[in-house]
Amino acid sequence: MPDESIQLRQPVRNRPSADPASAMPSLSDVPVPEELLLVAQSYWPEPAGSAPMMTDLATAFAAAGTETTVLTARPNYPGNRVYDGYADGSQDSLTVDGVLIERLRTIPPAGGGMKARLIHEGVLHAGFVAVLARGRVGRHKAVLSLCPSILSVALADRFRAPGGRHIAIVHDIQSGLAGALGMGGKAAVKAIRAMERTALNRADAIVVLSEPMRGVLEDLGVTRPIMVIPPHVDADAVHPLPRPDQPPTALYSGAFARKQGLEQVLDMAGHLAGLMPQARVLLRGQGGLEEELKSRAAAMGLANVVFQPLAPKDRLNEAMAEGDVHLVPQRPEGAAFAMPGKAVTILAAGRPFVSTCLPGSALATLEAQVGAFLCTPPEEPRAMAEAVAALLSDPARATAMGRRGRAWVELHATRAVVLDRYARLLLGEAA
């Protein structure tokens, strides 16, 4: 039940111009539902994965006048333990930035294997069921759920009030990633696929991050309306800054997880040392592969590779500026099942990036449309190193690409633009 500290503003009931170039909507322009429940296993203060994007979406709804509640886990990602100060449950019900956050106990998936993930998700989602049964969180007319996990999508449907609407947001297609990355056997993948099809077909509409993801869900047997809404960013908080006085820097920032294919970055760094000895490769993050990556870098003798922890949220903009060129590696077999949200944050910061992706993938399509970054073939680290060196050695080209990326974000991926599309879906209008 929302506490008295939630501050509400009445939404303005006028629709902005359909031409975003002539009238960019602000949050106060967007008609929004009176109340909203967001069901997601990741949320603030988790600094990577889906959490930043979902946090920004929830706070945008709250700022626009929606009484917003988030049902989530005690924060633990991308590490393998609950954050300090949260394990005792003292912060299980907390209002931050106008959003009531209701947290549940979980067991973080140490090691990242299928069994650990199932325990993590099972404990958390059993708690979701108990929350509804006890009335701690009631049914809502407007519900957003996030996959991962598909269990969040399945259970979110129970929180929808009669006559309400449930929109499922798919950031990862778990059956595809599990199969592509060799997590679990064929029977496990088949079971996840069946759960995805059933849960998603009970939602009123589904949001994916790219056209390839839409195609995968349609092939899976999902028949509900599927909308493509790209990842978004707070373009006021993340904006272009002058580069600091530092060596030429290629920056990766995010989770150290299997699906990122970070071994490609270490191999790339080896080639970059020969092409551009003065450049450094900064790997900023944490996660299950951290020690493995550090050991491999040491064994390879990569003196140009530096590891750092993720920057805190209040330093995100400055931290983004430290990358002259950013890195967005992906394992090719999983590229159709997920879209890296970090790409949009990099574009908002006015920096180019180099990605590993296949022709026809979401990033390859965006690169052709925007011209703000470079794509190189997966598992070809020398090609990646050559692309990074080309941008580091040509600041004028990198700056021009950064400007194109920032312009695209302002038209397509700001908080207000994306909030408007989600609000339309929740209110039963065309997005």
Describe the structure.
The protein has two domains: 27-232 and 414-426, Rossmann fold (3-Layer(aba) Sandwich), CATH 3.40.50.2000; 249-411, 3-Layer(aba) Sandwich (Rossmann fold), CATH 3.40.50. It has helices at residues 51-63, 114-134, 150-156, 174-180, 186-200, 211-220, 263-275, 290-299, 316-321, 342-348, 362-370, 381-392, 395-412, 415-426, and strands at 35-39, 67-73, 93-96, 99-104, 140-147, 160-170, 205-208, 226-228, 249-255, 280-286, 305-308, 325-328, 353-356, 374-376. The strands form two sheets. It has an eight-stranded mixed beta sheet, with helices on both faces. Strands 11-10-9-12-13-14 form a six-stranded parallel beta sheet, with helices on both faces. The chain is globular, with a radius of gyration of 21 Å. It contains 14 helices and 14 strands. Helix 7 (263-275) crosses helix 12. By secondary structure, it is of the alpha/beta class. Strand 12 (325-328), helix 10 (342-348) and strand 13 form a beta-alpha-beta unit. This is Glycosyl transferase. GO terms for molecular function: glycosyltransferase activity. Residues 241-408 form the Glycosyl transferase family domain.
